[in-house]
Amino acid sequence: MKCSSCGGTMRYDVASYGLVCDFCGFTKRLHRPEEQAAAGEFDFNAVVNSAPSDWGIARRLVTCKSCGAVMLYDSDQMSGMCPYCGSAIVLTEGYADCGIKPSAIIPFSITKEEVEAKFYKWNKYAFWSPEKFRKGKFLGNLTGVYIPYWTFDADAITAYSGSYGYTQDSGERTYTNWYKRSGIVESHINDYCVCASRRFCSDRLLNTVVAFKLDDLLPYTPDALAGFAAEKYTIGMDEAWYAARLGELKKRCEYDTRRNENADVCHHVQMSTEYSNIRFRYILIPVWISACRYNGKVYNVVASGHNGNGNCHRPVSVLKMILLVLIILALFAAPGILVFIIQAIEVIAMGG
User: Fold this and answer.
1) Contact indicator for 20, 11 with CB cutoff of 8 Å
2) What confidence tens digit (pLDDT) does each residue in 274-311 have?
3) Is-above-0.85 flag for pTM?
């Protein structure tokens, strides 16, 4: 984004929670979570005609040829490193079709330097990693990336029929009485979240880090994207809603039928659910990502950009694992073997 004062390029500054121009020092403040600015939703059924697509900022599209990641970068950036696999990437010359405009965002509030300091402090306790990795500086260039998510609201009416059980205690024995039940129950789905990245929707490493409160969402502003990449959604809204209805939302509706019958358990339940007043939001969540290279292999590091959570993949020292096995064997063998193993551990601790 260009500075309105001098025309220079502005960047998002985590510390000041706003945009800063490095040339003239001009700052532009953004909304904070405690100010409770409303983040809008759109009508699901009218999305094709009503959902805006102007992100308010020109972005360049890149698809990593090595890992297939699809990301949007600042228009003035021409090259860089893929944060997922560490490969060199070259951006397209034309501007990208960004798709549906985000309605809400959580800006970065944790700096790259804070993440690096936490990683190296945490990495010292990774005992089973090679000593060279534990004590070295192998963390690649951390890249701030916004991960896309969909949220859905809807009213649900479920007609059901099945067996519902009521558990009772009789002295030392517990038994369940089963009854056939049927009926109709109404419920409301509120802010159900679905990851819009096909790459990360089932990624355990990312899911251990990305945790956010919907109260932290702010109305989307292109200012928060300055200097950061944004992964373009690769799971469309229709696909995300379809998967939600067949997965977690189906379980929720079954739970609502059990609660409607005041039952403890249920099985063989047949349901028919109709959804209405479906609304959605397209939101962006901040994540720091790095591809850490060690001995020719890539180990990913992921950290939240707003809550301090972090996780990573690390190499495992084969030598240390062998020593562990030998120690276990030595406990049942001659004492001399144990002395030899202790000396070997001391050598490893000194970097040998």
Assistant:
1) yes
2) 888 888 889 999 989 887 777 878 778 888 888 878 88
3) no
DSSP 134-194: HHS------EEEEEEEEEEEEEEEEEEEEEEEEEEEETTEEEEEEEEEEEEEEEEEEEEEE
Give 243-246 contacts, CB < 8 A, sequence gap 24+: 243/194, 244/152, 244/192, 244/194, 245/273, 245/275
Read off the pLDDT of residues 50-108 as tens digits, 9 standing for 90 and up.
Answer: 565 556 566 677 777 777 777 777 665 555 677 777 777 766 555 556 678 888 999 88
How large is the C-alpha radius of gyration of the chain?
Answer: 26
Q: In 13-103, which ranges are continuous DSSP H helix?
A: 47-50
Q: At what angle do helices 335-349 and 318-330 cross, to 10 degrees?
A: 160
Contact by Cβ (8 Å): 230, 148? yes
Task: Say if CB 178 and CB 163 are below 8 A apart.
Answer: yes
- Candidates 207, 176, 179; CA nearest to 194 is 207
* Helix H or strand E segment including 343: helix 335-349
Token reading at 122: 């945490």
Token pair in block for residue 321 = 């694992």
Q: Which two tokens stand for residue 230?
A: 């944004």
**Are the C-beta atoms of 85 and 71 separated by less than 8 Å?**
no
What is the spatial distance between Cα 325 and Cα 344, in angstroms, rounded to a whole number? 13
Residue in 280, 285, 152, 278 with CA at minimum distance from that of residue 217:
285
